[in-house]
Amino acid sequence: MSEELTFRKAKREDLPRISEFRKTFFKYNPLMRSYEPEYYEWKCYKNPILPGEMWLAEDGDKIVAIKNVTPKMMKALGNITTVAEMGDTFTHPDYQRRGIFTTLSKAARESIINKGISLIYNIPNKDTSLPGYIKKLNHVPVPIKLRSLVHIINSKQPLKARLRSRLLASAFSPVIDTVSRAIFRIGMRGVTKSDVLIYAEPGFPDDINTLWEQVSNNYDVMLVRTKDYLEWRYVTNPDTYSILIARNRDGAILGYMVNKISLFESIPKGFICDFLTIEDDPNVLKKLLSTSLRDFYHRKVSRVSVWVVKGSFYDRILVKLGFLPHAVAVPLMCYKNELGSQIVSHAYRWHFTLGDSDGI
């Protein structure tokens, strides 16, 4: 191990090496999204807002740490501004506790701020990187409760893995699955008579911008969800997502939902990555959820995960339909610069989903 490390912004030709380095962390981070070179090509060089940046720490010709920054557009306190997410932060175990995380983070942050970024946010690992962000990087928690909710579809395989007993899993899973379905059916009473129609689409329609303009007025802080961004995030992404569009019988757009299936410890797991609906009719979200869960069931998913701001319109509906809080809270943070200081000064109305992170 050399005493002299180098820190630099990655180039396109580094992407295959970055991919191989990231794959060494599969045992620490389940395969929830791609880590192939084309994924990083998409993420860094095809971003319609600004090019993203990947930063490296190297020991000779060996990559020992990476840090990614992805520009996005956000509505923040009445203004549309360019922000960025810090993600893909990994340091080889042999090189940890040497200040690499801090040095790499500061270099990436300074570079992206020089491009006009007004806010940097991140969702750190609670047990590893979160203390470093607070103590050394001046990142602070956003004063909202962002939480992960789960809905059980088929509990047998997860129970078998956890209990290490096929017999116990076979005994308990029918009860768990029956209760989960019963709660969902109770919450869905009357929805079948709704005029909301759901369509599976290959992409996002032009009038998705109308939905964004209408619903964004309900929030103080949220990422901009126009067609250009959504197409880049979920359609041109090398990973595969399914897109549902909700309309009324006259064809007016009412909402959307984006889903994905990934392997989690060799078990298919469903993710509700993103969603936005009008909020004067709860049946829009309920019908999108019903269609999504039906598809997840047919594709033999064990459970479904979704992120939501606690107490929000979406959170209240999900809980009534039997979605249960995960034991671990989701730590949403931001760099405490001028705009960041304003945002963390008050519990503003946020809309934040799993797809607003780079974890899926």
Shape: globular
Counting helices, strands and paired strands, the structural category is: alpha+beta
Number of strands: 16
- Per CATH, the class of the largest domain reads Alpha Beta
Distance between the termini: 33 Å
Classify the fold: give the CATH topology of the largest domain: Aminopeptidase
Number of domains: 2
Strand count, sense and barrel status of the largest sheet are: 9 strands, mixed
- Gyration radius (Cα, Å) is 21 Å
CATH architecture of the largest domain: 3-Layer(aba) Sandwich
What string gives the helices and strands in order?
EHHEEEHEHEEHHEHEHEEEHEHEEHE
Q: Could you state the CATH homologous superfamily of the largest domain?
A: Gcn5-related N-acetyltransferase (GNAT)
The percentage helix is 25-40%
Catalogue the unreliable spans.
none
Counting H and I runs of at least 4 residues, what is the number of helices? 11
Mean pLDDT: 90
What fraction of residues sit in β-strands? 25-35%
Describe the structure.
The protein is of the alpha+beta class and 360 residues long. It has two domains: 6-141, Aminopeptidase; 147-328, Gcn5-related N-acetyltransferase (GNAT) (Aminopeptidase, 3-Layer(aba) Sandwich). It has eleven helices and 16 strands. It has helices at 15-23, 37-45, 100-113, 129-136, 156-163, 166-187, 208-215, 227-235, 282-298, 313-320, 338-343; strands at residues 6-9, 53-59, 62-76, 79-91, 119-122, 139-141, 146-152, 197-201, 221-223, 242-247, 253-264, 267-277, 303-309, 324-325, 333-335, 350-351. The strands form two sheets. Strands 1, 2, 3, 4, 5, 6, 9, 15 and 16 form a nine-stranded mixed β-sheet that branches. Strands 8-10-11-12-13-7-14 form a seven-stranded mixed β-sheet, with helices on both faces. Helix 1 packs across helix 2 (37-45).
